[in-house]
Write a structure and sequence with these properties.
Elements lengths: L1 H35 L4 E5 L8 E6 L2 E6 L8 E5 L6 H28 L4 H22 L6 E2 L5 E2 L2 H10 L5 H11 L3 H13 L5 H13 L3 H15 L5 H12 L4 H14 L4 H13 L3 H14 L4 H13 L3 H14 L4 H13 L3 H14 L6 H12 L2
Parallel strand pairs: 1-3
Antiparallel strand pairs: 1-4, 2-3, 5-6
């Protein structure tokens, strides 16, 4: 009989108390993240970023993924879609996770030791209290051992992250101004302020990373390459997958395809399930006219992210060039329903009509791509070709 009660307790603790304790901790991160940003916030409860082995709950801008494997329960993970925030806001978001656990722990401590509730309830609350204190101390004490995430990347616990963020507190005001412009998608203004931060001698990894990203957003590949060279000379040994993706992207749009492939290979080696790295490598294979390998990358990217508009669009182009025109057109049409303002989709749709010798339709789509983004790679080349066909 005692063994039976023991099994019930283990089940209750594992299936109810631990998930509830984790939920409180991650909501401590998630709620201020919602307040400070206007984009999606994702909470992984019981896993380090595994959506496939979890069931999903969506409430407004917050997504919650609950690990189905209750006996393989990890702490959790909070992911912000909006990546650039002021240092103070980042510290607050990270700190609120442990503080949420501590606040609940103090309430439970009072109920267990100083309230008049019945003994059975106190036993349950006692073990719940143990769980919340565990979450607090495990996260607030800085730990230099990285936590490996589901996608192959790694992060540090909350305490270690807070210490690292405090080190950035001495960054000049230009960093915060640049961050605001970046978040508002005013990338041309953001680069001006991040350049000033570098000029003042604050040559930290995060400054190079944000500045490269901002230059890529405005498609200024010359300046992106210049900053990437400076960054590489100082921090190449600590490159992560995003660094290699950005470096590869610069080289892809500069015509250095083989070097770009090498960078994407390194990004995928670090993070095998990075759909952006796979899509960008496939895009570069497209530019190299290696459509079979391109499609392999797009297939994997889409398997990881079913509604990945860019990968669908790029796969459509590869299929069209291989003669699978109707299959390719279906990919382009699906991509356009997901992202109708993507100039590359109109470019590829124009290619479809061009290959079918429907030159007026091709011109119409190329002009639409030009209207959306006159820097669309290879667009001028195709515009020149179709105008020659039409005698314009």
């Amino acid at each position: 009989m005692l063994f039976f009660y023991y099994l019930i307790f283990i089940f209750f603790f594992t299936v109810i108390l631990r998930p509830l304790s984790t939920l409180i901790h991650e909501l401590g991160h998630g709620i201020p993240a919602l307040l400070f940003t206007d984009k999606k916030v994702t909470l992984y409860l019981g896993s380090y970023g595994d959506p496939k082995e979890s069931f999903k709950v969506t409430i407004g801008r917050i997504e919650l993924f609950f690990n189905k494997k209750t006996f393989d329960w990890k702490i959790g993970l909070c992911v912000l879609e909006q990546e650039i925030l002021s240092i103070n806001k980042q510290i607050f978001i990270v700190l609120m996770g442990p503080l949420a656990s501590l606040s609940l722990s103090l309430i439970l401590t009072y109920l267990v030791f100083f309230s008049n509730i019945n003994d059975n309830a106190k036993i349950i609350l006692f073990f719940f209290n143990v769980s919340t204190y565990y979450d607090f101390f495990l996260n607030i004490i800085p730990n230099s051992k990285p936590i490996e995430l589901h996608n192959g990347t790694s992060v540090y616990n909350d305490g270690k992250q807070i210490l690292e963020l405090i080190q950035f507190k001495n960054l000049p005001e230009e960093y915060n101004i640049g961050s605001k412009h970046y978040n508002n998608k005013e990338y041309d203004l953001a680069v001006l302020f991040f350049e000033k931060v570098l000029d003042k001698g604050y040559k930290k990894e995060v400054i190079y990373q944000i500045l490269i990203s901002a230059y890529l957003q405005i498609e200024d590949y010359d300046n992106a390459s210049r900053v990437d060279d400076l960054y590489s000379s100082k921090f190449k040994k600590t490159y992560n997958s995003i660094d290699y993706i950005n470096s590869g992207l610069i080289k892809s749009f500069s015509g250095n395809y083989d070097e770009a492939i090498n960078d994407y290979n390194k990004a995928i080696e670090i993070e095998p399930n990075n759909s952006n790295a796979l899509n960008n490598r496939g895009y570069t294979f497209n530019l190299m006219e290696d459509y079979e390998n391109a499609i392999k990358d797009f297939e994997k990217a889409i398997s990881l992210e079913e509604n990945f508009a860019y990968a669908l669009n790029n796969r459509g182009y590869a299929k069209i060039k291989l003669g699978l025109k109707e299959d390719g057109l279906a990919d382009l049409e699906k991509s356009m329903t997901l992202d109708g303002m993507n100039s590359y989709c109109y470019l590829n749709l124009g290619v479809y009509h061009y290959d079918n010798k429907e030159y007026l339709k091709a011109l119409k789509n190329f002009n639409k791509a030009k209207e959306l983004n006159d820097k669309t790679y290879q667009l001028d080349y195709y515009l020149k070709k179709v105008k020659q066909k039409l005698g314009l």
